[in-house]
Every structure is written in C-alpha cells, then in structure tokens.
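Checklist before submission:
- one chain only
- standard amino acids only
- sequence pasted in full

Submission:
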Amino acid sequence: MSFWEYLGNRHQQLLTDAYQHVSAVFQCMVIATVLGILIGVVTYRSGWAGSLAITSTATVLTIPSLAAIGLLIPLVGLGVAPTVITLTLYGLLPIVRNAIVGLRGVDPALVDAAKGIGMSRLARLCRVELPLAWPPILTGIRVSTQMLMGIAAIAAYASGPGLGNEIFRGIASLGSANALNQVLAGTLGIVVLALLFDAAYVLLGRLTIPRGIRV
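Returned file contents:
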C-alpha cells in the first residue's frame, strides 16, 4: 500500500489524532503562558529572583521527556494527566525567560512618565510594561509551541492523545507493510501542525503588536 493510499484509508483516525494533538498542545500552552507571564511579572524586578526562575525552568529541560513522563505515571497514572503536566513544565522556560527580558527592557522613562500622570503600579504593568514586552513574550510562546509539538508525540508512551500514537504503532510493528507509512504519517502531521501554529502566531503578532513596535 502506497503512502497516499494509506492516508486515504486512515484519514478519519489521522484527523482525530491530529485534533487531539492540537488540543493538548494548545491547552498546555495556555496554562504555560499564564504561569510563565505571572512568574516573569513576579520576578523581573529582582536580579536573583529572575535568575532563580530561569534556572529552575531550565532545569526541567535537562530531564529527558520520556523519563519525565515515566516518572509521572506512578503518581498520576496514564493518559492525559502526565501529558498535560509534562508539556506545561517543558513550555515554561522560553516564556519565563522572554517575559523577564522583555519587562526589564522597557524604557524606564516611559514607566516614570506613566507614574507621573498618576497610574498605579498595576495600571503601569498592564497598560505600559506588558504591552511593550509583548513582542519578546510572543516569541517565547512561539518557541515553546514548536518545542511542545514534538514532545507531545512522546506522550503516546503513557497512552496520551495525539499523533504520537501513530508513530509508536509504526515503530512497534517495524517490518510490517504499513509500519513506515504510520511513522511517516504521524511525523508529517506534526510538522504540518507546527507550521500552522507558527502561521497563526505570525498573524496574532500582526494583530496585537503596534507597527511602531514591530519596526
């Protein structure tokens, strides 16, 4: 059976796996983005706190993703739970680092001007600092998403959702007629989804970043 014939015969299952893959990555990215920005906001004013936040989230990336999922299985079981926890933790570093760098890079004169017209600290953060820090934060989100698209495939090891199941089924049946087709379909599906995510972020950047800041 050719690759295109395989896609035609299995398109329903592949679409279901692709939807689950996108859903898992998207939901984990929402959680990681909220947590990452909060950590950045809390720590960016302090040198040691910012370094601690970056170092702590960077340490997570030194743990192989397969090992991380394996360690979580005895604690939370199989399926969605280890997938969500692993993806969220792995997605934090680029967002935390870029949030801290972006917030520290805001021109102090602009913050002082906002303070001078009577803005509260929260108002300065929400209306001046975060909007100006948004471009690097969005870059961090893009990097995290691309990284998680690949890591999410490993979640199939713990019966997690997504296209990784297709890849693992192919690896488990190496030598069979459709083994290569399964691995190729899962891999190409992840690549296509990653490109679509990135295109969506480019559009989001054009909609949310003022032209003057982009330039």
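Reviewer check: Residues 3-43 form the longest helix (41 residues).
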